[in-house]
């Protein structure tokens, strides 16, 4: 049986990140969040269509390092617009160009509903707080996976916008987290690389079960879905913490 090798993520083990064995990491099913089945059909169809454009684990482009953008032209503007649209349609709160197979150092995020969408081109981390926080993260490239990830609580990032204008962003909380998650994508790093080996195994299993359209077994409410049910019905909810 192929078990967690099925997604061919052999590089995951090699990335040298501090072990987080002490962390209480587990895949949390958010039973309070609205289930995908509860989304209205139009929203759900749009979400599914958008997700088809997002590269999933196993696609080598997710492990590639994106290159800096040098041309701030109409094509870049269109790229940012498309990323923004797909992020919204997929009900995500952030998206990196690499997730669409584009090796540009470009990301968009919309962590706080009241804020405008922000696009960062060529982002560089200038400063990160000593203070670190644990919080749950999802990823549009890892269907069904939600894991606790530890990151600096606040960051300062220098970047450009899609017109080439210099930006400096100071962020904390969810915004800081999304920015770091997306910047990781630009360097081929996934949340799987920031969790313990055990949590990673669990995450890979959840993802495989999600892809196969089976209900995850570990969540207590049993394998509700078998035979005949469309795969969508068994997908985990679009989490409250947001996927990016
Ligand atoms: Zn992601």
Main beta-sheet annotation:
5 strands, antiparallel
Shape: globular
Q: What is the CATH T-level topology?
A: Peptide Deformylase
Bound molecules: zinc ion
Brief digest:
The chain contains 4 helices and 7 strands; from the N terminus they run ααβββββββαα.
Describe this structure in words.
The chain has 244 residues and is an alpha+beta fold. It has a single domain, classed as Peptide deformylase (Peptide Deformylase). The chain is 23% helix and 19% strand. The chain has helices at 41-51, 74-89, 173-186, 197-211; strands at residues 94-96, 106-109, 118-128, 132-138, 146-152, 154-160, 166-172. The strands form two sheets. It has a five-stranded antiparallel β-sheet, with helices on both faces. Helix 1 crosses helix 2. The chain is globular. 36% of the residues are buried. Residues 139-141, 181, 185, 244 line the site of zinc ion (ZN).
